[in-house]
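Could you help me review a protein record that somebody else here produced? My question to you is simply how this chain folds and whether the tokens agree. Thanks in advance; the entry in question is below:
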Amino acid sequence: MPSPARLIFGFHSVLAKLRHDAGALREIHVDATRHDARLRDLRTHAEFAGIRLVAVPPARLEAMAPGARHQGVIALVDATQRHVSLDDVLDTLDEAAFLLVLDGVQDPHNLGACLRVADAVGAHAVIAPKDRAVGLTQTAVKVASGAAETVPYITVTNLARSLREMKERGIWVVGTDAQAPQDLYSARWPTACAWVLGAEGEGLRRLTRETCDQLVNIPMLGSVASLNVSVATGICLYEARRRIRDATAGRAG
């Protein structure tokens, strides 16, 4: 009896699998109308790994994954093999890293919502500790509405160490803290960045906070003292994405 399969979408996720866990891939479906450099690179890796590449009409891809942001590539993957590391993702990037780090989020609804935000803004991965965090439960996957398949979700044993490894690779680590002296809109940070948000009600743990390169607060102008972590994630990541867009437009001009 064949093992269960699942779908992964998008160039980053599929290339990471090809380069680091090709044995989990069964076949890759690609948009038959695409003939650009990214697809040629994907085809080269697939042929080297001996993975079948199937060119199909765009409508077929939409039928396979309705509403998914698949970028013209969908892979069929062994569902029993889900592990991907941060290095797997970073090694496939041809642009500045854009990451979300969740420090101890324990509500599966919040995790699912954060994954949806990460997918919507084009984040390359979501990183979380193995302990004191909810993990990809069925509820989290359902709330994510497909984003659990499009955005790599990476669990790490030691979050502070992983943050230091990001910094060694030139990624600026920005944490959110209500007591931070700078607010989100006045602060400046590099394009390659990892945004760190804390658990519901507790915020960042001390060691996580101390490991960040920079701390910012989200301005609160009303009577409530804090925001839901998924709402805060949306505010921070969309502001970061806006600046990435502006920086890219500035270089193009």
Observations:
- The chain has two domains: 5-83, 95-252.
- The chain has ten helices and eleven strands.
